[in-house]
Amino acid sequence: MIRDAVTLDVRMDRINLSVPPGPEFHGTLRLVVGGIGARSHLGYEQVNELQLAVESVVAHRRPAGAAVVVQADVDEQGVSLLVGPFEIEDDAAGLRVAERLVGSVGVVTLGDGQWLELSSTTDKAGVAT
Fold this sequence. Notes:
The protein is α+β, with helices and mostly antiparallel strands. The chain has one domain (7-121): Histidine kinase-like ATPase, C-terminal domain (Heat Shock Protein 90). The protein is 29% helix and 34% strand. The chain has three helices and six strands; from the N terminus they run E-E-H-H-E-E-H-E-E. It has a six-stranded antiparallel sheet, covered by helices on one side. Strand 1 (7-11) and strand 2 (14-19) form a beta hairpin. Helix 1 (26-39) packs antiparallel against helix 2 (44-60) and helix 2 (44-60) packs antiparallel against helix 3 (95-101). It is globular and about 30 Å long. Mean pLDDT is 83; it is low at 124-129.
């Protein structure tokens, strides 16, 4: 019997979350990304938009492995998420939505597939930009 596993690894200001790729785990991604956004002092709307961006990317891409990984780097300027690995695609599936929701979106191709980098920043007053 194969068990689905969710793992969470926190080291200093880097958080790694690994979940099975099924849609039943999208809620787990949303919950953890929301916590990461709140920890980085993003506003409510910005946290919600970051959650929606991750959900859009995960819903529109085909995972390249047995898990979807979200790696978050948090600092006083905001949060940067690396989400993947996904099968390499030329299509912009999920990117159009994500680009409208977060500060910046980038595609990184590594040995295990494509990863999407999503970033949201706060200004010095703690207001999301």
